[in-house]
Structure formats: C-alpha cells, structure tokens
Design goal:
Layout (H helix, E strand, L loop, with lengths): L2 E5 L4 H13 L4 E6 L19 E5 L5 H10 L4 E4 L6 H6 L2 H22 L9 E7 L24 H20 L3 E6 L1 E3 L8 H11 L3 E4 L5 E6 H14 L5 E4 L4 E3 H18 L3 H4 L15 E4 L14 H7 L7 H14 L1 H7 L2 H10 L5
Parallel strand pairs: 1-2, 1-4, 2-3, 4-5, 5-6, 6-10, 7-9, 8-12
Antiparallel strand pairs: 9-11
Bound molecules: nicotinamide-adenine-dinucleotide (NAD) and 2'deoxy-thymidine-5'-diphospho-alpha-D-glucose.
Length: about 375
C-alpha cells in the first residue's frame, strides 16, 4: 500500500492517472496537488472528488511549507510529479513560466521531499517518480533510429529545455543525495480530458465548430502517438518495477505525420455524422453536417519556430525491465477519443474560459 502525492493531477495526464490509479490500486491513498492553471480543471475530477481515497489540494508545488506539511500529514511515500507548463507554443510566446514551474517548481518539490523524507537523518521508504518527455532528446531525421535512454539530450524549445533541466535535477538528487528516483520520458499522448490547444483536441474542436484546421509548415512533422491510458500503465510499471536512478522511454510504436492525423480525424467525424444525422443539429457549423468534406477546413499556416521534425521512441528497455508494452491500438484509441470529444463538448466549453475562447475566435477563421 502507498500514500501518493500526484502533482498536476487536474491536468490531462494527471486526471487520467488519478482515475486509473483509483481503479487499479484500490488500497492506495492519493493526494492531488494542483495549482489549477488554465490547463488544470478540478471539474475533470468531479466524478471521483468524493472518493474516500482521494484528497484534492489546490496549491502550488513551489509552496514549500504546504508541500512539506502534505508529505508529513499524509505520510506520503510516493510522489508522481506531473505538474508542469506543457505546451510548446506557449513556451515560445513566453518562456518565463516554464522556467518557473518546470525548473524552479521541480527543484522546490525535490527539496521538500528531501527535507521530509530525510528529516531524522535516516531516509524513510520513498520514491520520487518524475514524468518527462521525449522532447528532451531533440529532433530526428527521417532515417535516424528512434530515441532511447542513451540518446544525448538536445532540447530545442524553451519547454523541452525546461523539462531537460528538471530531469537533470531529479538525476542529481539521486546521485548526490541518494533520493530514490525514477523518470519516464514519454511520447505524444492523446485521449480524454486533453486541453484543446494540443493538436488532436484542437483539430476536433475546430472541425465541430467549422473553424480552420491549422497545419504548421508542410504537415509532415512526425510524432509517436500514445493513448494516455498506456502512459498511465507505463508510469505505474516504472514505479513498481523500475530500478532506482534509471530512466525509461515510453512510446506507442506509432509514428505518424501530422497531416495523416488531421485527415483521419476529419474522416472519423464524417463517419459519425453519417451514422447519426442528429449530430448536425448539435454542430451546425461542421462541414460534415452539410455533406461537405471536413478537410476543406485544412489551412497551412506559418511553421512553429524551431519546430522539431520527428520524434520516435524505442521502448525496448521499458519492455525488458518493467514489462511495458502499449496495449491500445491507434485505431481503437483514436476512435474512442473522437467519441469522447463528440460526447463531451460541455467539458470543452467549460475548460475554455473567456480569454481562451476569444483567443480561438481571433486566431482561427470561421469557414462555415
Ligand atoms: P497539462 O498542461 O494538461 O497539465 C499540467 C497540470 O499541472 C495542470 O493541471 C496545471 O494546473 C498543473 N500545474 C501547473 N503549474 C503548477 C504548479 N506550479 N503547481 C501545481 N500544479 C501546477 O499537462 P499534461 O499534458 O497532463 O502533462 C503532464 C506532464 O507530463 C508534464 O510534466 C508534461 O511535461 C509531461 N508529458 C506530457 C506529454 C503529453 O503528450 N501531454 C507527453 C510526455 C510528457
Ligand atoms: O512529445 C511529447 C510532447 O508532446 C509533450 O512533452 C508536450 O507536453 C505535448 O504538448 C506534445 O508536444 P508537441 O509539440 O508535439 O504537441 P502539439 O499537440 O502541440 O503538436 C503536435 C504536432 O502538431 C507538432 O508537430 C505541431 C503540430 N501542430 C500543432 C498545433 C497545436 C500543428 O500543425 N497545428 C497546431 O495547431
């Protein structure tokens, strides 16, 4: 049995992880610590907020007295650290918050954990699991072998540089102070509760609203897409079976260029409209409702500065050492995700506060 602190538990992966953990580790107690930035939404947890094994705390990982008291009061022996600023485009518009949360915030958390777990001079049973990204490894050429744990770090965006810095701090706390850490570096996640600024939920949201579908550059940048439930399993396996001090690359063995993903989403939404004619009343601006192609909304826009060309993960080490394999195929995962966004537009509306809605209105032309 564990008493866990999950930071960033109201964000996309955090919400999925909290729900997955409550279902699969029924004896564990979970404390969620989340600052509820634009990306964090307590309403995503509303179906589990009353759960006897869950405590939700609205607070900042940089609030050292708060974190130390949570670690003591709840006798926390496992931290799974997800809290971060996570969107590459935002890190290009304004890097400061990324340094503040991802670097300073991670260091504050490590310091608090060290203080409490080591306060009597002897380490208590503990694990600090750090959730990181494949973006720390930089960008691959078309024929390069996929990233693995031995790939040298070469982060290219302020986001990936801040995550790389946090990875190094976690490593240093193990090497220098003996903290028991593991890290996972994961590829692009998709699934329910993802904020509609990331490619897949943004495209689905814009298709349904008849807004342009922005493709950066030539649309041939490649990502390795993983269903969030497989990431959650991978994190749990690294915690349970990972060797202390080690890192594990988690991926989906599922590389695809962005344009293929966007075309697939357009197609899947058309299929849903064909099967269910009532959808056109709910989404009157969607081209599929008028019998038109959703791909008519595709718009090539200026490329992201410094846009990494290709990410791919070789998960061999995770497979051999912790038994990780992705279980969800892209076909079933994306189909389930399309259905989730079709059925949960009220969630999308709720998380898009006034300023974000205005931003969408101003940035994406209406094509309906
Ligand atoms: P997200 O942006 O959806 O959620 C981040 C959460 O962190 C939000 O709930 C936010 O309120 C919270 N947060 C931000 N600053 C905080 C602070 N100072 N104190 C407490 N909470 C704070 O991010 P996500 O996509 O769920 O990603 C979670 C983690 O996984 C991040 O560390 C990210 O780098 C990593 N990751 C994400 C992906 C992906 O594809 N989304 C892939 C690999 C790794
Ligand atoms: O690889 C893991 C990373 O995946 C995580 O660490 C990040 O937190 C997560 O945001 C994600 O980063 P990406 O930059 O790869 O994801 P994003 O959804 O922003 O973009 C995916 C691809 O789609 C990328 O090549 C840029 C492109 N894109 C994105 C948006 C938002 C577009 O062409 N148009 C868009 O409007």
């Amino acid at each position: 049995m564990s008493n866990l602190l999950i930071t960033g538990g109201a964000g996309f992966i955090g919400v999925n992880l909290v729900k997955w953990w409550l279902e699969n580790h029924t004896a564990d107690n979970i404390v969620v610590l989340d600052a509820l930035t634009y990306a964090g939404n307590a309403t995503s947890l509303e179906d589990v907020l009353g759960h006897a094994n869950l405590n939700f705390i609205h607070g900042d990982i940089k609030d050292t007295p708060l974190v130390e008291s949570l670690l003591r009061d709840h006798d926390i022996d496992l931290i799974i650290h997800l809290a971060a600023e996570s969107h590459v485009d935002r890190s290009i518009e304004g890097p400061d918050e990324f340094i503040d949360t991802n670097v300073i915030g991670t260091h504050s958390l490590l310091k608090a954990a060290r203080t409490v777990w080591c306060e009597s001079g002897t380490w208590r049973k503990h694990r600090f699991h750090h959730v990181s990204t494949d973006e720390v490894y930089g960008s691959l050429g078309e024929d390069d072998p996929p990233f693995c744990e031995m790939t040298p770090y070469a982060p290219n965006s302020p986001y990936s540089a801040s995550k790389a810095a946090s990875d190094h701090l976690v490593r240093a706390y193990h090497h220098t102070f003996g903290m028991e850490v593991t890290t996972t570096n994961c590829s692009n996640n998709y699934g329910p509760y993802q904020f509609p600024e990331k490619l897949i939920p943004l495209i689905l949201t814009n298709i349904l609203r008849g807004k342009e579908l922005p493709i950066y550059g030539d649309g041939m940048n490649v990502r390795d897409w993983l269903h969030v439930s497989d990431h959650c399993r991978g994190i749990a396996m690294a915690v349970a079976h990972g060797r202390v001090g080690e890192t594990y690359c988690i991926g989906g063995r599922n590389e695809a260029p962005n344009l293929d993903i966007v075309n697939e989403l357009c197609h899947q939404v058309e299929e849903r409209f064909e099967k269910n004619p009532r959808l056109k009343d709910s989404f009157p601006h969607c081209p599929a409702g008028r019998g038109e192609k959703n791909t008519s909304l595709i718009t090539y826009v200026t490329d992201r500065p410094g846009h990494d060309r290709r990410y791919a993960i070789d998960p061999t080490k995770a497979s051999k050492e912790i038994g990780y394999e992705p279980l969800m195929t892209f076909v079933s995962g994306i189909s389930e995700t399309v259905d989730w966004y079709l059925g949960n537009q009220s969630w999308v509306e709720r998380v898009m506060d006034g300023s974000y809605r205005t931003w969408i209105e101003n940035n994406y032309q209406d094509r309906s």
